[in-house]
């Protein structure tokens, strides 16, 4: 991150180098941060932020789950996000709003701790390297996704990602690109930072809310646009072995966009090449986020 890049901190636009926090902050010690991952795209005439209000709504829902209180309104956060993109003159960027306890008193209690919010952004193109973006080799992790009886998995909270870090690290150490996590009862949930989809014939199957997943905004986008290419969406429990026999598999997420999965646990999927439906959906998704599809422009917020 360039020290001259501007970020939003509690309502002020400041240089990245000036946006400092106490090192003993509760959120660093205990992982109690709440965050979002949002993208802006170059839509030709301007930068546009994809599904901005949906992301800000989820940000506030995540804070509510943890009883984290802020005086900032959703509108102020939306404004702050737009300001960060425009002041830095970014087009293709990844935006990270982050709410945290800006308080260095030791102790787990959060009731009277000050909540701060920052919004940072970085220029961004692709989450996976070019070769991996063509298709991933995945491993079903020995780490399970904690169910919502253990941690509220629908909150996008920093602490949840320790589980993701362990799963990703295990997969990469074993020579794979990414992990797929199952629930404690063995059903497929999602990737460390992506939802998962399976194409079987004309069905697009994805684990439902009862599978303890983050309710992804990309997931919702994919479920909405998939009928345009003749796929019927089904949310249901997915067995691990179904991944091995699927016609096509892919991840969907703000950072990962649509990334094909070509191998799971050494089993080759769709002949080791991205499947036709995945390719069509990836193209349609790309056209959608860059404003090429009229009926989906409603999801874009242009930044003047
Ligand atoms: C665990 C997890 N699942 C799914 C997703 C996909 O969510 P979204 O499409 O809202 O980015 C993400 C990314 O934020 C994630 O971290």
Secondary structure elements and pairings:
Blueprint: E1 6-9, E2 12-15, H1 26-30, E3 34-35, E4 38-42, E5 47-50, H2 52-65, H3 74-87, E6 93-101, E7 115-123, H4 130-133, E8 136-144, H5 161-173, E9 178-182, E10 188-190, E11 195-200, E12 203-206, H6 217-225, E13 232-235, H7 240-245, E14 248-253, E15 257-264, E16 267-268, H8 276-289, E17 300-303
Strand content: 25-35%
Q: Briefly, what CATH class of the largest domain? A: Alpha Beta
Q: How much helix is in the residues?
A: 25-40%
Task: Please identify which CATH superfamily of the largest domain we are dealing with.
Answer: D-amino Acid Aminotransferase, subunit A, domain 2
Overall radius of gyration:
19 Å
Biggest pleated sheet: 9 strands, mixed
Describe the structure.
- The protein is an alpha+beta fold and 304 residues long.
- It folds into two domains: 6-123, D-amino Acid Aminotransferase, Chain A, domain 1, CATH 3.30.470.10; 130-289, D-amino Acid Aminotransferase, Chain A, domain 2 (Alpha-Beta Barrel), CATH 3.20.10.
- Helices cover 26% and strands 29% of the residues.
- It has helices at residues 26-30, 52-65, 74-87, 130-133, 161-173, 217-225, 240-245, 276-289; strands at 6-9, 12-15, 34-35, 38-42, 47-50, 93-101, 115-123, 136-144, 178-182, 188-190, 195-200, 203-206, 232-235, 248-253, 257-264, 267-268, 300-303.
- Strands 8, 9, 10, 11, 12, 13, 14, 15 and 16 form a nine-stranded mixed beta sheet that branches.
- Strand 14 and strand 15 (257-264) form a beta hairpin.
- The longest helix has 14 residues, at 52-65.
- The chain binds pyridoxal-5'-phosphate.
């Amino acid at each position: 991150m360039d020290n001259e890049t501007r970020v939003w901190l509690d309502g002020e636009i400041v240089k990245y180098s000036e946006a400092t926090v106490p090192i003993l902050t509760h959120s660093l010690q205990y992982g109690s941060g709440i965050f979002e991952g949002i993208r802006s795209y170059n839509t030709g005439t301007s930068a546009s932020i994809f599904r901005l209000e949906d992301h800000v709504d989820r940000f506030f829902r995540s804070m509510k789950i943890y009883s984290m209180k802020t005086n900032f309104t959703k509108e102020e956060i939306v404004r702050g996000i737009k300001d960060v993109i425009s002041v830095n003159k970014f087009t293709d960027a990844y935006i990270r709003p982050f709410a945290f306890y800006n308080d260095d008193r030791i102790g787990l209690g959060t009731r009277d701790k000050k909540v701060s919010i920052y919004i940072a952004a970085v220029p961004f193109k692709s989450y996976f390297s070019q070769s991996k973006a063509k298709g991933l080799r995945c491993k079903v992790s020995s780490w399970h996704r904690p169910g919502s009886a253990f941690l509220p998995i629908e909150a996008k909270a920093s602490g949840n990602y320790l589980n993701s870090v362990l799963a990703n690290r295990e997969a990469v150490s074993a020579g794979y690109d990414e992990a797929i996590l199952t629930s404690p009862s063995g059903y497929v949930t999602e990737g460390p930072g992506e939802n998962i989809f399976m194409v079987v014939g004309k069905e697009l199957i994805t684990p439902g809310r009862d599978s303890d997943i983050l309710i992804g905004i990309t997931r919702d986008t994919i479920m909405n646009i998939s009928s345009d290419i003749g796929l019927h969406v089904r949310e249901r429990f997915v067995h691990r072995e179904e991944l091995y026999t699927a016609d096509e598999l892919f991840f969907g997420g703000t950072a990962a966009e649509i990334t094909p999965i070509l191998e799971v646990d050494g089993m080759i999927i769709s002949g080791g090449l991205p499947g036709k439906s995945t390719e069509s959906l990836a193209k349609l998704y790309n056209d959608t986020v860059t404003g090429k599809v009229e009926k989906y422009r409603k999801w874009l917020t242009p930044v003047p």
